[in-house]
Amino acid sequence: MLQCRTCILLTAASFYTASSARGKIHPTAYEVLGVGPTTPFSEVKKRFHKLARFYHPDMPHGDAVRFREINAAYRALRAAHREQRSESINCRSGEANFWARQNCGRSEDYCGPLGRGRRRGSGHEAQRGGVMYELLWLYEGYELVFILIIAIIVIVVATQRCITVYRMTRDKRMRTIAMEEGLPPIMPLAIDDSVMQMYSTPVPQEEVELDDAMAEEMTYYRRATQRRFEDFREFLFIHDPYGVTSRKVCTSRFSVQYVDESLIPKRCAIVREFNSEEKGMRYENIVGPLAETLGTTLWAAPDTQHIAPLVAKGLGVIPMNTPDTAKWTFVEYKNNDRPSDAPSCLLALKNNRFDRLGMCQRITVSGSSVLSPNLVSKRQHNALSQEHTKIVSGGEIPLRNLSVPLELMKL
Q1: Backbone dihedral angles phi then psi of residue 165, each to the nearest 5 degrees
Q2: Which helix (H) or strand (E) holds 271?
């Protein structure tokens, strides 16, 4: 049947252009591609690609009719080639199955009951062979039992090992917790009268209050210094608990192409540069002096002197607002005492890791004079004493219209 299909495909490849114009003698598929019937299929394929590129309609010398004829001829020859290849594969698999059936019959003749009986009745050598075969057959029967026994032993040993490790880990964890909490060691069953009297004496109330204050201070220090925060709301809850309900911190990101970088030093009061890829020039190396500068500067809004250093420190412990991922980081202050005034730029951080492109990060924190009464009273005292101090106030960030897409902007 496969040979008939092959003949039919080859015949179709020879007369594939029967639907063309009448009265003409049409060439075969081999003649269209310019190859012979004995040409390898790899050469036929190369010839097809060459003619297809030459007669493609998109080429200057292309011919759509000729291109269709070449495609039809190649498809016919490819179908015939695949049919011949599948026929040869089926023939090889049939031969392999034949020899497998022959070998299976031979093994059955050797291992079957008839073969066993013939070997047993063939003398002393056959008798020795029969005993060995019986031993092998017995081993094959008990092999599953041996495997099950070994598996059960392995499971029992592994379970015992897991239980031992669990108990050791639990005891170690309990000892570690006891050491961290300062618990006394496990007491013996027999307690001396002196020990009973020592632990029965009530602790003075002053010492209890002192221990509670020390534990609270240690907890605050651990929460404030040995952790990272999710956002500024969580950071201010630890460092500014009295103003966290009144302040608002807004964060936005936009492309650096919306900013006029030449006007940043004129609009922002403090400008600092760092490089997040150089070891000695990272933000963590400049955050200490930067926070001190922000805290000692006399701003137009007294509350700025309190909140600006906290925001600078928060940039180093809040991964979401880290300056390492932005080219410019702006810190603004919105004075709620004057709602009509625009936010003033306090700090501009430039990351020299980025050359021309990058993102900008804008952090706006709000506040009022009510949140920092000590700074307000100090400012009034300086004014009454007529001390001449320089008041610093930032300007607006030089931003273009953020609602305009970049592709419509004239940069």
Answers
A1: -65, -40
A2: strand 270-274
* CA-wise closest residue to 230 among 245, 251, 247, 215: 251
Q: What is the largest CA-CA distance in the chain?
A: 131
pLDDT tens track for 37-67:
888 888 988 888 988 888 888 888 888 888 8
Cα–Cα dist 69/72, whole Å: 5
Give the Cα separation of 307 and 203 in Å (integer): 42
Q: Is 191 exposed, middle or buried (0-12, 13-18, 19+ CB in 10 A)?
A: exposed
CA distance 12 to 26: 13
pLDDT class of 17 with cuts at 50, 70, 90:
very low
What backbone torsions phi and psi does residue 332 show, to the nearest 5 degrees? -115, 155
Q: CB 361: neighbour CB atoms within 10 A? A: 22
The whole-model pTM stands at 0.46
State the Cα–Cα distance between residues 206 and 209, nearest whole angstrom.
5
Length of the chain: 411
The gap from C-alpha 176 to its chain's centroid, in whole angstroms, comes to 34
Mean pLDDT, range 97-125, rounded to an integer: 53
C-alpha 159 chain-centroid distance: 36
- Residues contacting residue 295 through CB under 8 Å, at least 6 positions apart: 305, 306, 308, 309
- Asked, for residue 177, whether it belongs to a domain, the answer is no
Please tell me whether residues 394 and 320 are part of one structural domain.
Answer: yes
Q: Are residues 247 and 371 in the same domain?
A: yes
Check residue 61 and give its pLDDT.
Answer: 80
Contact 67, 55 (CB under 8 A): yes
How many domains does one find in the chain?
3
**Whether residue 42 is found in the same domain as residue 118:** no
User: What range does the domain containing 141 cover?
Assistant: 114-163
Residue that finishes a domain, picked among 86, 104, 122:
104
Q: Where are the alpha helices (DSSP H) in 227-275?
A: 232-239, 264-267
Handedness of CA 133, 138, 144, 147 (dihedral sign): negative
Predicted pLDDT at 365: 94
User: Do the domain assignments include residue 292?
Assistant: yes
User: Do 121 and 270 belong to one domain?
Assistant: no
- Shared domain for 55 and 86, answered yes or no, is yes
Q: pLDDT class for 125, splitting at 50, 70, 90?
A: very low
- CATH code for the domain of 46: 1.10.287.110
Q: How confident is the prediction for the chain on average, in pLDDT?
A: 80
CA 24/CA 19 separation, integer angstroms: 11
The answer as to whether 158 is a domain residue is yes
In a domain, 259, yes or no: yes
